[in-house]
User: Fold PaaI family thioesterase from Aminipila butyrica.
Amino acid sequence: MSIEEIFKQDDLEKIMRAFIAERRREPERLNEMLNIQLITCNKEERTAIFEFPIYDWELNPNNALHGGITASMMDYALGLFANCICRQLGGVFSPTVDLNVRYLLPIAGADKVQIKAQLLSSGASLLTLNGEASIQKGGPLVAAASATYKVLQR
Assistant:
């Protein structure tokens, strides 16, 4: 299946929700503790929006979201989108090759973080995505990321 075909599917959101449910089998892992939720997909923009609740254990001494947790949320959201695309391309797994996170504002006084993941390009073996984090819909960006994922074939 080509990238164009993947983003023409009417059931892309359903495929992604099933992929997330499959990951729920490992409750003791960090990714599962982050409790990701898929909000929506936009096939035309090649985006997916994810939401993460913020828990007390994720806060730093200043009661803001720890930077490492922000990076983990970015990698999880972008990586989950990349892995879903990877599987649709016939691959089996899509590990992170590169992740660059830019912290723009402290994430404090919020109960959720939304991350918009966007597929920028896909080659024979690499997927490149951007991520934008905000604490409210339409609010200012609090973090931005770019990442590359390797498409591993069977």
The first helix runs from residue 3 to 6. The longest strand covers residues 112-122.
